[in-house]
Give the backbone structure.
Amino acid sequence: MIIDSFAIEALDTRDEVTALIGTGPLTFSHNLLANNGRLGSLTIVNETDDDDFGFNEELWMRSPEHQNTIQVETGLQPSVSNESSPHFRPRGSTQSMTSKRPPKSEFFDESAVYPGAVNPRATSTWLEGWVAYPEA
């Protein structure tokens, strides 16, 4: 998954999540978090005022065993903001990431070995013919 250009926090949990993480139902790994709020800085949020019993999402996301990639610059092409013809292919920096094959499902492309929803090497994408971007 690619989470890019989110203004404040890329991920915020609520309630008690430590048990879900410890036993395995809640995971967050092999993601690209780019150009998101404070992720470029190493200052830690005061978690005592949060609604998740002091769980620190940023430290959890940054934990090496999750293999998330966190970067200051965007992970998407500059043309992503083009209102009439956006391109959602990730930048080349994602090719060095360790990707995780999606779960078997009718919804996911099980052959995908790249982060995000659009293959960075494809000449056409599944978005063509499915979405429209009329001139604003």
Summary: The beta strands are 2-4, 32-34, 69-71.
